[in-house]
Here is the input.
Amino acid sequence: MRLQQSALKTPTRIPSDPLQRAWVALGRVSQSVQCRVEEALKHAGLPELSWYTVLWELERAGKPLRPKDLAIPLFIPPYQLSRLVDRMEAEGLVKRIQCKEDKRGHMLAPTAKGFTLRKEMWAVYAPAMEDAMKRIDDAEALKLAELLNKLGGIEHVNCGDKG
Amino acid sequence: MRLQQSALKTPTRIPSDPLQRAWVALGRVSQSVQCRVEEALKHAGLPELSWYTVLWELERAGKPLRPKDLAIPLFIPPYQLSRLVDRMEAEGLVKRIQCKEDKRGHMLAPTAKGFTLRKEMWAVYAPAMEDAMKRIDDAEALKLAELLNKLGGIEHVNCGDKG
DNA sequence: GAGGTTTGGTTGCGTTTGCAACAATCCGCG
DNA sequence: CGCGGATTGTTGCAAACGCAACCAAACCTC
Here is the structure.
């Protein structure tokens, strides 16, 4: 009796070539593009993107947020946020506010200085982003976003003023 | 005389909404997908992806490589590669070979153990990649890869056996 | 309302990163 | 040849990360 081919030669399931291509491109391109923007910020003497994102999320929410409500959308583990906030608080960019309803935690709110810094960063971030992405046009960007969101199952958020 | 509008109201150039969407999606999705694969490797008690990539590039090249020839395609700074190789060498996965032509540097080659490990990793990596990417089909993956490559201007490489 | 579990958040500690300085070699040019 | 500059790769040190342990308050159950 013949052995079934499928049962024999599948020691590991191998992603199709298109999937592999997409995977590789995703890793490389996102890294490359991200780096370019980080570089622009650093070159301007500004903090890294994660600081921006914290400030932006707080500003966008329009009200103080619990750390956990930031950690989820930022996709970073709580201990990382905790220390990020330590640093930002030390620079006077955000403040931890005693939380009445739940005495374990606290609320995070941007300070005036934090607000200002976010704007300064956006002034560098926005053009850098545009520059890093200039090789595709709007229609392509839309299609790209659509495919990525399908891949990741994540909904839309924007990232700065007048978006 | 009237001032030109364009000269007046462009304190910062703002990326179009499609561009912003693509940017955000790129960051979030790549991180999410990457994490899932790293997690699978860690869960299997295997080293992180960068180790795989070093081993794979060496194996793919089919001959010993100079560190700089690895650092470029891996898109990591030389000092990072230097330490990565330190660790991998300490585990007996690669070896540094004295280089005749250029006594500053050396060649990197995988050991038998390194070769074996790469295969073990691929057995976990491949299904994890497939799983992380399963929400899009081949046609979409191809389109995605195409758009990403246009965005980043990077050519195709695959990432494992029988690709 | 006492005791166990879950949740929210921080921290100690070892590892990894990033930068800038460094060493060693190679290359080009007078 | 001999010297100045470029290339290749490493390293000391400070900052950041990742894990697991931890604390404290909240919640849940009896």
Q: What stands out?
A: The helical segments of chain A are 5-8, 17-43, 49-61, 67-74, 78-90, 112-132, 138-152.
